[in-house]
TrEMBL record, chains A, B:
Keyword set includes Flavoprotein: yes
Keywords: FAD, Flavoprotein
Gene Ontology terms, MF aspect: catalytic activity; FAD binding
Annotated protein name in UniProt: FAD/FMN-containing dehydrogenase
Length: 472, 472
């Protein structure tokens, strides 16, 4: 059992920190994007250095009160809110937002955990380099949170998840010690990889205070195309063909369903739909190639080979930077259209690539037996990451479907599990999926996770209730 | 204190395993490539399945006897030998050598931990794909050991270390439980990353029994060139230029010193030296490009730009596959020449890329003050990984240098540490570098490592004395 943070303790803590570190408990700290939980916090502190973070953590440890680390607040699984239990200290990263250094010759950037993703991208661009992590919330998500949740996004196919982009960390561990691990090395085999343990631990094993991040050359020639594919299996074959021809030059490979295009029409989104009538399936392929390669020509040759192999039967290659942006607008407006239609249940799942066609067929069939649904299945096909979202039939509303959400999600997640997939591809566990982790997680892994948590955070102060259920 | 494995216990264990799992204690299990230690073992077992491994581990746990996992035996830091303390069970992976599955559509291969690297490479090639891990001992190193030590090699620049090539693991944890984590997913954010914790733990946190591995498209156009650079700083600028022009197409970027070429001449190695007289510094650049790109032309253009920028002043582009092989033979024969000359001290170090020119200058100067040495500095410059090896002056032998090794290594490692580098870039800690880890390791990280070890392996049976000093 944790102790709640009290007013008296908050006053005590305030004497140990600079005045600027003490924040008002504003509503924005207690909300999360899905509006599913209302958080609580007895105080909000915003330390500016790892030493100040350590002061807070040691204080929390001494008094047995919980600490909830808070980045940009954009997480979708409630890892950043504390809806119940003892009132915590909310520890905001916002004052550790500096880009500490850019090393162009190393292609490395060192940022405080509070640095906003868009600012990191901009700092990389100023050095004529690329920080490839890119996702919808990049204007407010902070590096510490992005690493704590191992964020994904649209460039994972080529550059990996947040995890793969991190060379080193500075972090405060649950005992209040500071790990000075801001290495900028590509190779460093000196003991257990604490970096990868903290990445993805969602603030339950410590607080990331800074990170050294990998930068990449900016691909000079970008090009995009829509290609109409026969079915998801043909899309996979097209992906393999594209990678065989162009290697790492394939930057993104997104699956879009006819239903997604239909939703754009139905909800009157102001984007130019690429085909009319809508095909059943299409992919958006993006290339990023060296200057020496003509990327439009490369797309044309890929299309010609795919046509020959009967994988595709129609296509559009963007003829200008503006048209490329229009193509992406189609892809990026689908979630907005989904919101207007109103999903019964959404799923952030991943599957072994070769299982995807079978999964889609089986899940569609099982749901058709369960009720009258429409399915918009789309996502980062190159990563095996699907957003398999279930909607009411045309003309009906999700309120008519009562408690179907639970049944639909159980069906989808059971099938994903059976087919060796994951019920959380990129969003993490947070507080939303603790039950799913208990249900689907490997028992040996769960036991090891609990042992590690108990070893590093014996008093359980770090973000209790996230990832692992807090002890009663 | 561990109990030694005894003859009686060995007989008991033998009754719990199939007869084929019981091996003779042959000398090959007790030797290591550097001949620095003689190992001991009371028995050798070679289980064929994770379940049999679990049986061994549970037995060891019940009796408090140590277990030393044994892959190909090629490790260079003694992680696979037990020279002192209680006699262990040596657990060989050799009977788990099957390639369990190849999934061409997913670009994934699943191998038992005993699979030999060259066999994995061949299985990938049969599927027209590439498993890019490549190093000198690939004919005998086994996947389990390669992952347990997070092996590196020549393709890390483009494809990453062993760690980055692994999607999932099956492993037996120190309590004898089996973690069924053979995921084939690119995205899976479901709790702490046990995979990355076991990778690089050198068998001290469990036994890897199988792995799912990433495969890649095979670059269709390969080309290589030697380029003579002004100095290591110019080599770094050339690397940045090459990556700006060709992105991930730069597969390898190796630094070679004039001393390396000189050693080839001096020891009469049968390779064609590329320049005469030997320049001070050169690099070997390898490209692997899509079929649509002319890789020789790309190298010519790179050379022309580098000449213009005064980074290079001479160069040779391989004109045939045979010549490309000859170029690589120069690079790969340098370690052999080194052996013939006889090093006083060798160092497998890494540095932030931009620190490399300064490090080389400072270390050379400091060693010149210390004594009359010759230095052959070469290695994977693209990874910041140098083999900074120190030799006797011409005409002298290392025996004349008495105890200089210790002093030289302390000087080099102290300087590497001060410049934020690593004293073990790719070989790991094993038993050789436990003292260095204690000396240079971050105290908070070391404490966390010890806590994790105690939590997962409370009786300390897994490879005691490797990575972390065994309790007295």
């Amino acid at each position: 059992m944790m102790n709640p943070m009290t007013e008296a303790l908050a006053q005590d803590l305030a004497t140990r920190l600079p005045a600027a570190a003490i924040r008002e408990v504003e509503p924005r700290y207690l909300e999360e994007p899905r509006g599913q939980w209302a958080g609580q916090a007895a105080c909000v502190v915003a330390p500016a250095t790892a030493e100040e973070v350590a002061e807070v953590i040691r204080f929390a440890g001494a008094h047995g009160v919980p600490v909830v680390p808070y980045g940009g607040g954009t997480g979708l699984v409630g890892g950043q809110v504390s809806p119940d239990g003892a009132a915590p200290i909310l520890l905001s990263l916002e004052r550790m937002s500096a880009i500490r250094a850019v090393h162009p010759r190393e292609a490395v950037l060192v940022a405080g955990a509070g640095a906003i993703l868009a600012d990191v991208q901009a700092a990389a661009e100023e050095a004529a380099l690329l920080f490839p992590l890119s996702l919808a919330s990049e204007g407010s998500a902070r590096i510490g949170g992005l690493l704590a949740t191992n964020a994904g996004g649209v460039n994972v196919l080529r550059y990996g998840n947040a995890r793969e982009l991190c060379l080193g960390l500075e972090a405060v561990l649950p005992d209040g010690s500071i790990w000075h691990g801001l290495r900028r090395l590509r190779k460093d085999n000196t003991g257990y990889d604490l970096r990868h343990l903290l990445i993805g631990a969602e603030g339950t094993l410590g607080v990331i205070t800074a990170a050294s991040l990998r930068l990449f050359p900016r691909p000079e020639r970008r090009a995009a195309a829509f290609m109409v594919v026969r079915d998801p299996g043909a899309a996979l074959d097209l992906l393999a063909m594209a990678r065989r021809r162009l290697g790492e030059g394939v930057s993104a490979f997104e699956l879009i369903s006819g239903m997604g295009l239909e939703f754009l029409r139905e909800t009157e989104r102001p984007v130019r739909r690429p085909f009319d009538p809508s095909p059943d399936w299409l992919v958006l392929v993006e290339l990023g190639l060296p200057a020496a390669l003509d990327s439009e020509a490369a797309l044309e040759e890929l299309f010609a080979e795919a046509l020959e192999a009967e994988l595709v039967d129609d296509g559009l290659i963007a003829q200008s930077e503006q048209q490329r942006a229009e193509f992406w607008a189609v892809r990026e407006t689908i979630p907005e259209a989904n919101k207007h239609v109103g999903a019964i249940a959404s799923h952030d799942i991943s599957l072994p690539l070769s299982a995807i066609p079978d999964f889609i067929a089986r899940a569609d069939a099982a749901l058709a037996k369960l009720g009258d649904f429409r399915i918009n299945c789309f996502g980062h096909l190159g990563d095996g990451n699907l957003h398999y979202n279930v909607f009411p039939a045309h003309g009906r509303s999700k309120t008519e479907y009562g408690e179907a959400r639970r049944e639909v999600s159980a069906l989808v997640h059971d099938m994903v599990h059976e087919m060796e997939g994951s019920f959380s591809a990129e969003h993490g566990i947070g507080r939303l999926k603790v039950g799913e982790l208990e249900r689907y997680g490997d028992p040996a892994k769960l036991a090891a996770m609990r042992a590690i948590k108990a070893a590093l955070d014996p008093s359980g102060i770090m973000n209790p209730g996230a990832v692992l259920r807090a002890p009663e």
